[in-house]
Design a protein that fits this description.
globular, 181 residues
Protein backbone atom coordinates (compact mmCIF):
# COMPACT_ATOMS: atom_id res chain seq x y z
CA UNK A 1 0.00 0.00 0.00
CA UNK A 2 1.17 3.53 -0.67
CA UNK A 3 2.66 5.40 2.23
CA UNK A 4 0.84 8.40 3.61
CA UNK A 5 3.20 11.35 3.77
CA UNK A 6 2.86 14.24 6.19
CA UNK A 7 3.83 17.62 4.83
CA UNK A 8 4.36 20.46 7.22
CA UNK A 9 5.74 23.74 6.01
CA UNK A 10 6.12 26.08 8.95
CA UNK A 11 8.50 28.95 9.11
CA UNK A 12 10.17 29.72 12.38
CA UNK A 13 8.62 33.16 12.67
CA UNK A 14 6.62 34.84 15.36
CA UNK A 15 2.96 34.98 14.48
CA UNK A 16 1.63 38.46 14.89
CA UNK A 17 -1.88 39.09 16.07
CA UNK A 18 -3.75 40.45 13.09
CA UNK A 19 -7.45 40.75 12.42
CA UNK A 20 -9.69 38.02 13.75
CA UNK A 21 -12.27 36.20 11.63
CA UNK A 22 -14.60 39.18 11.95
CA UNK A 23 -11.91 41.49 10.48
CA UNK A 24 -11.08 43.21 13.79
CA UNK A 25 -7.83 42.79 15.72
CA UNK A 26 -8.19 40.39 18.65
CA UNK A 27 -9.29 42.14 21.82
CA UNK A 28 -8.57 39.37 24.30
CA UNK A 29 -5.84 36.85 24.96
CA UNK A 30 -8.25 34.08 24.01
CA UNK A 31 -9.05 35.65 20.64
CA UNK A 32 -5.34 36.14 19.90
CA UNK A 33 -4.55 32.53 20.86
CA UNK A 34 -7.42 31.18 18.78
CA UNK A 35 -6.21 33.16 15.81
CA UNK A 36 -2.59 32.02 16.21
CA UNK A 37 -3.68 28.41 16.56
CA UNK A 38 -5.89 28.61 13.46
CA UNK A 39 -3.08 30.19 11.43
CA UNK A 40 -0.56 27.49 12.36
CA UNK A 41 -3.12 24.69 11.96
CA UNK A 42 -3.98 25.81 8.42
CA UNK A 43 -0.39 25.13 7.38
CA UNK A 44 -0.42 21.49 8.53
CA UNK A 45 -1.51 18.97 5.93
CA UNK A 46 -1.36 15.26 5.24
CA UNK A 47 -0.84 13.98 1.70
CA UNK A 48 -2.58 10.63 1.19
CA UNK A 49 -2.34 8.69 -2.08
CA UNK A 50 -5.56 7.20 -3.46
CA UNK A 51 -5.23 3.44 -4.10
CA UNK A 52 -5.37 2.46 -7.75
CA UNK A 53 -3.87 5.64 -9.17
CA UNK A 54 -0.28 4.37 -9.28
CA UNK A 55 0.79 6.59 -6.38
CA UNK A 56 0.24 9.61 -8.61
CA UNK A 57 -3.12 10.96 -7.36
CA UNK A 58 -3.99 11.80 -3.79
CA UNK A 59 -5.67 14.09 -1.34
CA UNK A 60 -4.07 16.89 0.64
CA UNK A 61 -5.97 16.69 3.91
CA UNK A 62 -6.10 19.52 6.41
CA UNK A 63 -7.74 20.27 9.73
CA UNK A 64 -11.51 20.10 10.05
CA UNK A 65 -13.14 22.68 12.35
CA UNK A 66 -14.48 20.96 15.46
CA UNK A 67 -18.04 22.15 14.82
CA UNK A 68 -17.98 20.50 11.39
CA UNK A 69 -16.55 17.28 12.83
CA UNK A 70 -19.15 17.30 15.61
CA UNK A 71 -21.88 17.58 12.96
CA UNK A 72 -20.48 14.60 11.01
CA UNK A 73 -20.37 12.50 14.19
CA UNK A 74 -23.87 13.61 15.22
CA UNK A 75 -25.37 12.71 11.84
CA UNK A 76 -23.65 9.30 11.92
CA UNK A 77 -24.87 8.55 15.43
CA UNK A 78 -28.47 9.42 14.55
CA UNK A 79 -28.42 7.60 11.22
CA UNK A 80 -30.21 4.28 10.75
CA UNK A 81 -28.45 3.66 7.42
CA UNK A 82 -26.40 0.47 7.15
CA UNK A 83 -23.75 2.69 5.53
CA UNK A 84 -23.56 5.19 8.38
CA UNK A 85 -19.92 4.35 9.22
CA UNK A 86 -18.89 4.61 5.58
CA UNK A 87 -20.83 7.87 5.22
CA UNK A 88 -19.11 9.34 8.28
CA UNK A 89 -15.64 8.33 7.07
CA UNK A 90 -16.38 9.59 3.57
CA UNK A 91 -17.66 12.89 4.96
CA UNK A 92 -14.50 13.30 7.03
CA UNK A 93 -12.32 12.87 3.93
CA UNK A 94 -14.53 15.13 1.83
CA UNK A 95 -14.38 17.91 4.43
CA UNK A 96 -10.68 17.43 5.18
CA UNK A 97 -9.65 17.51 1.51
CA UNK A 98 -8.20 20.95 0.91
CA UNK A 99 -6.89 19.94 -2.53
CA UNK A 100 -6.35 17.04 -4.86
CA UNK A 101 -2.64 16.49 -5.43
CA UNK A 102 -0.89 14.71 -8.24
CA UNK A 103 2.51 13.89 -9.67
CA UNK A 104 3.77 12.37 -12.90
CA UNK A 105 5.87 9.76 -11.09
CA UNK A 106 5.47 8.35 -7.59
CA UNK A 107 8.98 9.62 -6.74
CA UNK A 108 8.08 13.24 -7.61
CA UNK A 109 6.80 15.78 -5.10
CA UNK A 110 3.04 16.21 -4.81
CA UNK A 111 1.59 19.22 -6.65
CA UNK A 112 -1.82 20.76 -6.05
CA UNK A 113 -3.99 20.17 -9.10
CA UNK A 114 -5.73 23.34 -10.27
CA UNK A 115 -8.70 23.90 -12.55
CA UNK A 116 -8.77 26.38 -15.44
CA UNK A 117 -9.58 29.21 -13.01
CA UNK A 118 -6.64 28.37 -10.75
CA UNK A 119 -8.78 26.86 -7.98
CA UNK A 120 -7.64 23.57 -6.46
CA UNK A 121 -9.65 20.50 -7.33
CA UNK A 122 -11.46 18.95 -4.37
CA UNK A 123 -13.86 16.02 -4.07
CA UNK A 124 -16.51 17.54 -6.32
CA UNK A 125 -18.06 17.39 -9.77
CA UNK A 126 -15.15 19.31 -11.33
CA UNK A 127 -12.80 16.48 -10.37
CA UNK A 128 -15.22 13.83 -11.64
CA UNK A 129 -15.46 15.60 -14.99
CA UNK A 130 -11.67 16.06 -15.25
CA UNK A 131 -11.07 12.35 -14.62
CA UNK A 132 -13.98 11.20 -16.82
CA UNK A 133 -15.89 9.73 -13.88
CA UNK A 134 -19.68 9.67 -13.70
CA UNK A 135 -20.39 10.51 -10.04
CA UNK A 136 -22.38 13.63 -9.30
CA UNK A 137 -22.23 13.35 -5.49
CA UNK A 138 -19.10 13.50 -3.35
CA UNK A 139 -19.54 10.14 -1.59
CA UNK A 140 -20.11 8.38 -4.90
CA UNK A 141 -17.07 10.12 -6.34
CA UNK A 142 -14.99 8.74 -3.48
CA UNK A 143 -16.24 5.24 -4.31
CA UNK A 144 -15.28 5.76 -7.97
CA UNK A 145 -11.87 7.21 -7.06
CA UNK A 146 -11.18 4.21 -4.80
CA UNK A 147 -12.75 1.65 -7.16
CA UNK A 148 -9.43 -0.03 -8.01
CA UNK A 149 -8.99 -1.07 -4.36
CA UNK A 150 -10.28 -4.60 -3.55
CA UNK A 151 -12.82 -2.93 -1.24
CA UNK A 152 -13.32 0.78 -1.96
CA UNK A 153 -15.30 1.27 1.26
CA UNK A 154 -12.58 -0.38 3.35
CA UNK A 155 -9.87 1.70 1.63
CA UNK A 156 -11.85 4.88 2.37
CA UNK A 157 -12.31 3.80 5.99
CA UNK A 158 -8.57 3.11 6.24
CA UNK A 159 -7.64 6.54 4.87
CA UNK A 160 -10.11 8.20 7.26
CA UNK A 161 -8.54 6.27 10.15
CA UNK A 162 -5.04 7.34 9.09
CA UNK A 163 -6.29 10.92 8.87
CA UNK A 164 -7.77 10.69 12.39
CA UNK A 165 -4.45 9.41 13.78
CA UNK A 166 -2.57 12.17 11.98
CA UNK A 167 -5.01 14.84 13.18
CA UNK A 168 -4.68 13.72 16.80
CA UNK A 169 -0.88 13.76 16.60
CA UNK A 170 -0.89 17.08 14.73
CA UNK A 171 -3.06 18.58 17.46
CA UNK A 172 -0.49 17.58 20.10
CA UNK A 173 2.34 18.96 17.95
CA UNK A 174 0.41 22.18 17.47
CA UNK A 175 0.02 22.60 21.22
CA UNK A 176 3.75 22.04 21.69
CA UNK A 177 4.66 24.52 18.93
CA UNK A 178 2.37 27.19 20.37
CA UNK A 179 3.82 26.62 23.83
CA UNK A 180 7.33 26.85 22.44
CA UNK A 181 8.36 23.40 23.61
Amino acid sequence: MDEIVETVELEDEEIEAGPSSNGKPPETVFEALQQKRATVAEEKTLDAPIPGWFGCLGFRLGPIPSAQLDRIVDVAQKSKSPERNFNANADVLIQACVAVVGRLDRDDEWEVQLDEDGAPFRVDVRLAEKLGLTATKARNLLRELFSAAPSPELAIDQMAGSYAQWAAAANEELDEELLGE
